[in-house]
TrEMBL record, chain A:
Gene3D superfamilies: ACP-like. Belongs to the acyl carrier protein (ACP) family. This is Acyl carrier protein. The gene is acpP. The modification O-(pantetheine 4'-phosphoryl)serine is found at residue 38. Keywords: Cytoplasm, Fatty acid biosynthesis, Fatty acid metabolism, Lipid biosynthesis, Lipid metabolism, Phosphopantetheine, Phosphoprotein. It is found in: Cytoplasm. Residues 3-78 form the Carrier domain. Pathway: Lipid metabolism; fatty acid biosynthesis. Carrier of the growing fatty acid chain in fatty acid biosynthesis.
TrEMBL record, chain B:
Its EC number is 1.1.1.100. Keywords: Fatty acid biosynthesis, Fatty acid metabolism, Lipid biosynthesis, Lipid metabolism, NADP, Oxidoreductase. The gene is fabG. SUPFAM superfamilies: NAD(P)-binding Rossmann-fold domains. It is an enzyme of class 1 (oxidoreductase). Catalyzes the NADPH-dependent reduction of beta-ketoacyl-ACP substrates to beta-hydroxyacyl-ACP products, the first reductive step in the elongation cycle of fatty acid biosynthesis. It catalyses: a (3R)-hydroxyacyl-[ACP] + NADP(+) = a 3-oxoacyl-[ACP] + NADPH + H(+). This is 3-oxoacyl-[acyl-carrier-protein] reductase. Homotetramer. GO terms for molecular function: 3-oxoacyl-[acyl-carrier-protein] reductase (NADPH) activity.
Amino acid sequence: MSAEIFDRVKNIIVDRLGVEEGEISLQSSFKDDLGADSLDVVELVMELEDEFDMEISDEDAEKINTVGDVVTYIASQK
Amino acid sequence: MLSGKVALVTGGSRGIGRAISLELASQGAKVVVNYAGSQSAAEEVVAMIKEQGGEAIAVQGDVASYEDAEKMVQSTLDAFGRVDILVNNAGITRDNLLIRMKEEEWDSVLNTNLKGVFHCTKAVARTMMKQRAGRIINITSVVGVIGNPGQANYVSAKAGVIGLTKSNAKELSSRGITVNAVAPGYIETDMTDKLGEDVKGKLFEAIPLQRLGRPEDIANAVSFLASDKAAYITGQVLNIDGGMVM
């Protein structure tokens, strides 16, 4: 379940941030490791909402730092 | 110049907003004419656009309410599938001397004229960011630059809109969205009809082009800023005032 979510999240990150898939781990920080600025993170959240057909509240979105945070959050909502 | 584009004009049924709705439509844009109370005026604008072979709908909503702003944007997307141009035009006046101004007069003008711009911009930003393109044009006023006695609330809101324009321009430019402000001087509308002849006479002394502006003077500039020709212009305030403020 989580592995499948991780793959889908990775695809979006590769597409949106233009990083190599190999650079992305669950520990990767969007801002420190993947070069995202705060607007990039907002856009990623928007795209994740579409991809997983869910709504992520602003409060929850603000807690997202790493790729692992996203995967755990989505898994918990499914 | 704007064919295939979709424009949302707040307060688009009367005065300057009406001229903007008609001009954008005449350039080929599909127009959503927002109104707060003037339903018949909005329907008249829509009918005029349709007569010219254009596409338009009227949507009720008070920009002072974020919920209404979101609904307006949703109605735009439902009708036309996208939103390329937002013109934040809706505005009110509650003029009074500072010393007599009631809190309610201050709040209502700030809520519509400044917070309304925040609401509508926030509501379209998501869609425009996804589109990687958008044009936001805020109607401010030259009094927001130079001040005006009896209009502490209106001037503060309009000056606020200029700051908001610049911040939003910086924040959204990386997503292909430009944000500019147009600052009318004295324009012939219901708002200025109330001025007496003596006041108008004094005004002309301060206006190098020696006449009041027409709503079309503003609409032409908005139409340009909304077009692809203005792609390299963002964060600017364009005074359209017959040279009153330089």
